[in-house]
Specification:
Layout: H1 9-34, H2 40-98
Protein backbone atom coordinates (compact mmCIF):
# COMPACT_ATOMS: atom_id res chain seq x y z
CA UNK A 1 0.00 0.00 0.00
CA UNK A 2 2.99 2.30 -0.43
CA UNK A 3 1.57 3.41 -3.81
CA UNK A 4 -1.44 5.13 -2.24
CA UNK A 5 -1.14 8.92 -1.83
CA UNK A 6 -0.92 10.14 1.74
CA UNK A 7 -3.04 13.24 0.98
CA UNK A 8 -6.71 13.39 0.29
CA UNK A 9 -8.05 15.06 -2.84
CA UNK A 10 -9.25 18.02 -0.75
CA UNK A 11 -5.81 18.57 0.75
CA UNK A 12 -4.20 18.26 -2.66
CA UNK A 13 -6.68 20.81 -4.09
CA UNK A 14 -5.93 23.28 -1.26
CA UNK A 15 -2.19 22.83 -1.81
CA UNK A 16 -2.54 23.46 -5.54
CA UNK A 17 -4.70 26.55 -4.87
CA UNK A 18 -2.11 27.84 -2.39
CA UNK A 19 0.66 27.33 -4.94
CA UNK A 20 -1.36 29.19 -7.57
CA UNK A 21 -1.87 32.14 -5.22
CA UNK A 22 1.84 32.20 -4.40
CA UNK A 23 2.70 32.15 -8.10
CA UNK A 24 0.24 34.99 -8.84
CA UNK A 25 1.72 37.06 -6.03
CA UNK A 26 5.29 36.36 -7.15
CA UNK A 27 4.43 37.18 -10.78
CA UNK A 28 2.73 40.39 -9.67
CA UNK A 29 5.87 41.44 -7.78
CA UNK A 30 8.02 40.55 -10.78
CA UNK A 31 5.81 42.59 -13.10
CA UNK A 32 6.00 45.60 -10.78
CA UNK A 33 9.80 45.35 -10.80
CA UNK A 34 9.93 44.98 -14.58
CA UNK A 35 7.89 48.18 -14.93
CA UNK A 36 10.76 50.03 -13.24
CA UNK A 37 13.51 48.54 -15.43
CA UNK A 38 14.93 50.65 -18.23
CA UNK A 39 15.03 49.03 -21.65
CA UNK A 40 18.51 48.20 -22.95
CA UNK A 41 18.07 50.41 -26.01
CA UNK A 42 17.09 53.41 -23.87
CA UNK A 43 19.99 52.76 -21.50
CA UNK A 44 22.48 52.55 -24.39
CA UNK A 45 21.16 55.77 -25.94
CA UNK A 46 21.38 57.60 -22.61
CA UNK A 47 24.86 56.22 -21.98
CA UNK A 48 26.04 57.34 -25.43
CA UNK A 49 24.51 60.78 -24.96
CA UNK A 50 26.19 61.22 -21.60
CA UNK A 51 29.54 60.08 -23.02
CA UNK A 52 29.22 62.60 -25.86
CA UNK A 53 28.35 65.40 -23.43
CA UNK A 54 31.32 64.53 -21.21
CA UNK A 55 33.64 64.54 -24.23
CA UNK A 56 32.28 67.92 -25.33
CA UNK A 57 32.75 69.35 -21.83
CA UNK A 58 36.32 68.04 -21.67
CA UNK A 59 37.08 69.65 -25.03
CA UNK A 60 35.56 72.94 -23.88
CA UNK A 61 37.54 72.79 -20.62
CA UNK A 62 40.77 72.31 -22.57
CA UNK A 63 39.94 75.28 -24.80
CA UNK A 64 39.14 77.40 -21.74
CA UNK A 65 42.42 76.40 -20.10
CA UNK A 66 44.34 77.39 -23.25
CA UNK A 67 42.51 80.73 -23.39
CA UNK A 68 43.28 81.42 -19.72
CA UNK A 69 46.94 80.58 -20.28
CA UNK A 70 47.08 82.89 -23.31
CA UNK A 71 45.46 85.69 -21.28
CA UNK A 72 48.00 85.24 -18.47
CA UNK A 73 50.87 85.38 -20.95
CA UNK A 74 49.41 88.53 -22.50
CA UNK A 75 49.04 90.16 -19.07
CA UNK A 76 52.62 89.29 -18.12
CA UNK A 77 53.81 90.72 -21.43
CA UNK A 78 51.89 93.95 -20.82
CA UNK A 79 53.35 94.34 -17.33
CA UNK A 80 56.89 93.71 -18.57
CA UNK A 81 56.40 96.18 -21.42
CA UNK A 82 55.07 98.88 -19.10
CA UNK A 83 57.93 98.35 -16.66
CA UNK A 84 60.49 98.39 -19.50
CA UNK A 85 59.06 101.65 -20.86
CA UNK A 86 58.70 103.39 -17.49
CA UNK A 87 62.02 102.26 -15.97
CA UNK A 88 64.23 104.62 -18.04
CA UNK A 89 61.79 107.47 -17.39
CA UNK A 90 61.78 106.82 -13.64
CA UNK A 91 65.56 106.47 -13.64
CA UNK A 92 65.89 109.82 -15.40
CA UNK A 93 63.56 111.48 -12.90
CA UNK A 94 65.46 110.04 -9.90
CA UNK A 95 68.90 110.96 -11.28
CA UNK A 96 67.64 114.39 -12.35
CA UNK A 97 66.29 115.04 -8.84
CA UNK A 98 69.71 114.30 -7.33
CA UNK A 99 71.52 116.73 -9.60
Amino acid sequence: MADEPSMSNGELGRLIQSLREDMREDLGQLNSRLDKVVQVEVYNIEKTTIAERVAALETQREKDAERILATRRWMIGVVITVVAVLLPYLTAIVTGAKA
